[in-house]
Amino acid sequence: MDLIVVGASTLGRDAIAVARAQGKFSVVGIVDDDPGRASIVDGVPVLGPIDTLAPLFAQVDGYAVIVAIGDCRSRYAVYNRIVRSIPTIRFATIIHPRATLLGDARVDDGSILFPGVVLGPGSHVGLSSVLNANSTIGAGTRLGGFVSIAPGVNLGSDTVIGTGVYFGMGSAVAQQIHIGDWCTIGALSFVRRDTPPGSLIVGSPGKVKKERPT
Fold this sequence. Notes:
This protein is α/β, with parallel strands linked by helices. Helix content is 16%, strand content 31%. Substrate binds at residue 70.
């Protein structure tokens, strides 16, 4: 199936590489609103701004799309903008062949899994989430949509992660913890307690430094 990548930044390039490794999609184009974007990224032509998608889908209904934008809130906004303009849009799920899904682990549409990711049995990755290399999701853990996980993150079993949570590199969460929507977990932090929505958590053990509007 032909794939269009939304975002010409570093994550966009990574998404192209993962899609090529998966071998399920042919990456035929990129869309990006940055007027200073390159015309070709890793051999893939940049077709124009994101609004280019609507006329493309009006002509050909065989494309799938992946939103490869690193910032959780920006990815959420662009994803919903696309859905509003093209209600029948098809979002791809791209999973590197060296990622491992154990048992009945599930991944929702629009997500990207990098090499070395391990999903435990019964875990669930929500819409349009990004799981970077060598991150581990424990058995029964549930991720809301639009989560971003940096390399080397470890989430304990039966943990509940809200929408739009960002995990910095090497951070970890103990088992059976609830992380509220739109939290930010600092690099190398270890979270051992439930956290309210919009929190910034840093340190080991993790401490709430501030709570932000959600």
